[in-house]
């Protein structure tokens, strides 16, 4: 079953890295296929004709899109090294906070990176409020999942992206002074081999973000 797993991804996508991290933590062998999103492969378009995006997992020739959906599928299909909580309530809450990250925090952060002036200042304040809410979930814990890394930690792994995005844009919404608990969590994460294997190279990522911002500015003129 394991050798039939393929992951179509893109090196700068935090959502692709999220799935890679889950695969590594669960010890699932897989083939990684890097996609050029400006020239998508026939295989990506064949397996994901609706969204035409990454990450895309193919298992036994059956495709799955959307990183949160893929994480749950991996955990239900490979029972070893579970990443979701066993308790139904805790499992539901992990899903709730995952949606908070993807549907509230990340869209707000994206608006900050594409705005200027007062609009950007207001966006940064909103990001701070949402990060503080998320940080409260970490109080008194080693990881979001408890004593070891789990589903919500994998989802929140996207916060590494805030480093590069902040430095590239000159607007760093995630600082040690404002969010010490999140920074302690990050320090614990980077001691895990699988996490480091899935980290986006900082300088390469900053260059990518800068080029993307410049292209968006040019397109809006």
TrEMBL record:
Enzyme class name: transferase
Domain GST N-terminal stretches: 3-82
EC number: 2.5.1.18
InterPro entries: Glutathione-S-Trfase_C-like, Glutathione-S-Trfase_C_sf, Glutathione_S-Trfase, Glutathione_S-Trfase_N, GST_C, GST_C_Tau, Omega/Tau-like, Thioredoxin-like_sf
Gene3D superfamilies: 1.20.1050.10, Glutaredoxin (3.40.30.10)
Subcellular location: Cytoplasm, Cytosol
Gene Ontology MF, one: glutathione transferase activity
Listed GO CC annotations: cytosol
The entry's keywords: Detoxification, Transferase
GO process annotations (BP): glutathione metabolic process; toxin catabolic process
Source domain of life: Eukaryota
Major location category of this protein: cytoplasm
Alphabetized PROSITE patterns for the sequence: GST_CTER (PS50405), GST_NTER (PS50404)
Domain (GST C-terminal) ranges: 87-208
CDD domains associated with the record: GST_C_Tau, GST_N_Tau
Entry annotated with the keyword Transferase: yes
Catalysed reaction equations from the record: RX + glutathione = an S-substituted glutathione + a halide anion + H(+)
Assigned protein family: Belongs to the GST superfamily. Tau family.
Name of the molecule in the record: glutathione transferase
Organism of provenance: Theobroma cacao
